[in-house]
Structures are given as structure tokens and as C-alpha cells.
Amino acid sequence: MSKPVRLSRQAREEVLEAARRYGAQRTELRAEFLAAVDEVLERVIRYAPHLGSPPGVDPALGVKRVFMKRFPYSVYFIELPTRFRVLAFAHARRKPHYWLGRR
């Protein structure tokens, strides 16, 4: 049985804000972005043990990163005993590691 994925409040807000921005550009982009979010979360569930720590982050924190396809976002998450906790959906052009204080 696979572990569920839970988004932090901040990560959920980041997804919703990005979806809103993409939808403002083109209606169908919102749906495409949300489909990419679903796909990347499935990859978290499937490949988490094989994903590595992001550069510049202490591996002891247990934070892992996976890149979204097509959109310039990375998903930062930790694996807990009963679930995966997504800390951030970070845009590639944002300040690096702004999310480090999240748990």
C-alpha cells in the first residue's frame, strides 16, 4: 500500500495561485497545469526512495525534490512514516530555498 501525499497549507496556496495565473493566460493552461500537478505527485509516491536531496540543502533534513514536466516548478517534500508531506511547489525563478522553514 502506498503512502498518501499531503500538501502543506503554503504548498496548496502555491498550486492554486499558479493555476490562477495560468488560467488567466489561457483557460486550458489551468487544467494542463493541474494535470501536471497530479502527475508529479504520482511520481512522488512511486519514486520517492530514488529521488535525491536538492543542492544546497542539508541531506539530514530529508527533503527531496522532483521537477514538474512542462512547467517551471519543483516539488519539495519529505517522507514521513505514514505519508509524504509536500512543503512547496517552488517556481524556478523564485528565491532559492525560501521554503526551508516549513515542516
Keyword list:
four-stranded mixed sheet, 103 residues, alpha+beta, globular
Could you walk me through the main structural features you see in this protein, from its secondary elements to its overall organization?
- This protein has 103 residues and is of the alpha+beta class.
- Helices cover 37% and strands 22% of the residues.
- It contains two helices and four strands; from the N terminus they run βααβββ.
- It has helices at residues 9-25, 27-47, and strands at 5-7, 63-67, 73-79, 84-91.
- Strands 1-4-3-2 form a four-stranded mixed beta sheet.
- Helix 1 runs antiparallel to helix 2 (27-47).
- The protein is globular.
- The model has no long low-confidence stretch (mean pLDDT 89).
Order of helical and strand elements: EHHEEE
Number of strands: 4
Uncertain stretches of 5 or more adjacent residues: none
Question: How are strands sequenced across the largest beta sheet?
Answer: 1-4-3-2
Secondary structure layout plus pairing:
Blueprint: E1 5-7, H1 9-25, H2 27-47, E2 63-67, E3 73-79, E4 84-91
Parallel strand pairs: 1-4
Antiparallel strand pairs: 2-3, 3-4
Short description:
With 103 residues, this protein is α+β, with helices and mostly antiparallel strands. The chain contains two helices and four strands; from the N terminus they run βααβββ.
